[in-house]
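In the design runs reported in the main text, the only information available to the sequence generator was the tokenized backbone. The following block is the verbatim input for one such run; it is reproduced so that readers can re-run the procedure and compare outputs position by position.
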């Protein structure tokens, strides 16, 4: 039997490739005849740089920038094809996982902008920006200011660091923006398909995760409309309706407005670029996984999209998850690591051990397929 082992990362615990190796080890401990193809899954969110690095084997450049609240932080970006292609993961600098508290009215994407600035200054001709895991809802205003776009308050003064620039800006000055910005090929990988506004808009859907109250969501949606209208010079711009434009606090907006960027679903891009569909065609069963199975799994997240694709091809899918919060028919079978311990800290401290155990326990199930 041929198994495709393709888990996403278990956030804060284990990378996708290490999770895949642990599951494979458990399977082969019980049945050495099982052949396993490993594919480190990602969907444009956290862990996407790691997946790309697995296949492209470029350089990881470590640099000191700032996190979403302005503290110094070490972040990495990928450099490929002699520096002509750069991969920047927004969560590296501006991720919620970097912070000890949620302060969305103070957080910005400025640190990610510094990484983009460094990539441009070192000769990048194509930049792939992966969204997801953001601590911010600033419409990309912070990262744009790092690229020398001046954000001005109502008195015409530059907005200082220490606040979400979306909340206080009134004017924009594009004179400092390098003309290279519009010449670079921009690919934006979104981990969800939400537009910016509306009931399913990114602000309304994911704002509470970042610490926004209902009142703050309404206020930020209004500020976001002002932001995008000034960016585009239009009163009802189409870019806010693009699937994925609402990801990561709508951080893609500057690239859509001024950089002729293409927004792609991260899972679809990873699948197409690295041949995932062929691996599904060639396997008998798919095993995927993630840290938490919840409503987002069905909204463009990697394991859910993988299961849908596998079902289209007539293949069964098993999900191994750290925690199961919803019932779903996306998967043919779900295994939760909670069977080994109800203590999340225990599971997160030794993820490879428990994933290996789960892999071993799956052999009987596989033989029944």
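Verbatim output:
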């Amino acid at each position: 039997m041929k198994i495709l082992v393709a888990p996403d990362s278990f956030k804060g615990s284990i990378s996708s490739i290490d999770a895949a190796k642990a599951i494979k080890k458990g399977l082969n401990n019980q049945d050495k005849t099982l052949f396993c193809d490993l594919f480190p899954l990602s969907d444009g969110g956290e862990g996407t740089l790691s997946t790309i690095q697995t296949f492209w084997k470029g350089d990881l450049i470590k640099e000191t920038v700032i996190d979403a609240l302005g503290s110094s932080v070490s972040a990495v970006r990928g450099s490929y094809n002699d520096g002509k292609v750069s991969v920047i993961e927004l969560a590296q600098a501006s991720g919620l996982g970097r912070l000890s508290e949620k302060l969305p009215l103070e957080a910005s994407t400025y640190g990610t902008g510094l990484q983009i600035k460094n990539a441009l200054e070192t000769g990048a001709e194509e930049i792939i920006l992966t969204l997801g895991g953001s601590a911010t809802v600033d419409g990309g205003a912070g990262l744009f200011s790092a690229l020398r776009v001046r954000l001005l308050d109502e008195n015409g003064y530059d907005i200082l660091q220490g606040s979400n620039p979306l909340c206080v800006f009134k004017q924009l000055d594009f004179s400092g923006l390098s003309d290279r910005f519009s010449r670079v090929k921009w690919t934006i990988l979104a981990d969800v398909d939400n537009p910016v506004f509306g009931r399913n808009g990114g602000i309304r859907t994911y704002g509470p995760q970042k610490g926004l109250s209902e009142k703050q969501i309404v206020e930020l949606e209004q500020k976001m409309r002002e932001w995008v209208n000034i960016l585009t010079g239009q009163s009802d711009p189409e870019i806010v309706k693009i699937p994925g434009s609402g990801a990561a606090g709508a951080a893609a907006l500057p690239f859509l407005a001024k950089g002729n960027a293409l927004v792609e679903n991260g899972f679809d891009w990873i699948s197409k670029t690295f041949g995932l569909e062929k691996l599904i065609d060639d396997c008998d069963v798919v095993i995927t996984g993630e840290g938490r199975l919840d409503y987002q799994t069905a909204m463009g997240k990697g394991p859910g999209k993988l299961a849908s694709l596998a079902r289209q091809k007539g293949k069964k899918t098993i999900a191994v998850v750290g925690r199961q919060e919803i019932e779903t028919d996306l998967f043919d079978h779900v295994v939760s690591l909670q069977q080994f311990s109800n203590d999340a800290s225990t599971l997160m401290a030794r993820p490879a051990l428990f994933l290996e155990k789960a892999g071993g326990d799956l052999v009987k199930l596989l033989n029944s397929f």
